[in-house]
Amino acid sequence: MPNSQPLAALLQSAIADELRHISDLLERLAEVLVGDEHFASKYLDQLQAFDLLVQCTHESAAVLDRLSAGEGAHAAVAPVRLGHIRDRLRAALAQAA
Q: Which of 11, 27, 33, 40 has its C-alpha lying 20 to 30 A from 68's C-alpha?
């Protein structure tokens, strides 16, 4: 069986790129919605969810980038800035232990 590590790293990097693409689409959609003053004033709280989604996709992409660069799982998760994501990822790693 061929070494799957290089393939896994390529896939992780490609998934990180896809997440960044999703993030860009979300940001553009949010900009359109915020541009509608009536809509924005009525749904301001819900529009803030777009920012959270963008942050989550960026953090997830960064974890995948670190993994694809050869970092270990715990080291890849450690720099995650959003506590709720970091906690969930650490919990997932703990289940494997």
A: 27
Closest CA to 60 of 29, 31, 40, 89: 89
pLDDT (tens digit, 9 = 90+) per residue, 32-90? 999 999 999 999 888 899 999 999 999 999 999 999 999 999 999 999 999 999 999 99
Report which residue type is found at 43. Answer: Y
Domain range for 53 = 5-96
**In total, how many domains does the chain have?**
1
What is the DSSP annotation of 49-84? Answer: HHHHHHHHHHHHHHHHHHHHTT--HHHHHTT---HH
pTM, two decimal places: 0.87
| DSSP-derived 3-state class of residue 36 | coil
